[in-house]
Amino acid sequence: MEPMDIVGKSKEDASLPKAIESKVLLGCLNSTMTKIIKEMLPADVRVARDAQDLLIECCVEFINLVSSESNEVCSREDKRTIAPEHVLKALEVLGFGEYIEEVYAAYEQHKLETMDSLKGGKWSNGAEMTEEEAAAEQQRMFAEARARMNGGAAGPPKQPDINPSLES
Q1: b or e along 66-105 (b: 16 or more beta carbons within 10 Å of the residue's beta carbon)?
Q2: What is the per-residue pLDDT across 29-44, written as a single tens digit (0 to 9) for each?
């Protein structure tokens, strides 16, 4: 029997239609990309809205291209789930081999940060981050990624502040 929500519809029926989910995801991508574009440029440089839209469309197209090729790599291996190795192979097939080392390093860093957060961070006791904490963590991760992209080291990852009210 399927779990039911308060109005008697199954959770699948209550989920957003795929077209709306895509628009929500694109909205998140747009705001994230807008922020990255503004942060990467000097303060006195402005970007025309149509140029910004074009950059975002390029990002979306790149994601579609890599996703599609990753799916093909996965299918050729008779797998049903795209793994990180499939994405790296897709980058190579598409001619982006020079980025594989950086992408893999970023992936490894993400795994370490995620594992650290799950083991000893706020999530270890079931508590969730507030929206402000999540935004601050996202900004920290963006700064580290920019530093890596610009050839500088970002230094050790900052540990999230522990909320005293969550400690037992």
Answers
A1: beebbeebbeeeeeeebeeebbbbbbeeeebeeeeeeeee
A2: 778 888 888 888 898 9
Closest CA to 52 of 34, 40, 35: 34
Identify the DSSP state of 48: -
The full length of the chain comes to 168
pTM value > 0.70: no
Is the domain spanning 16-95 CATH 3.30.70.260? The answer is no
* Domain boundaries defined on the chain: 16-95, 99-160
Query: Measuring CA to CA, which residue among 124, 159, 166 is closest to residue 140?
Result: 159
Question: Measured between alpha carbons, how far is 55 from 146 in angstroms, rounded to an integer?
Answer: 17
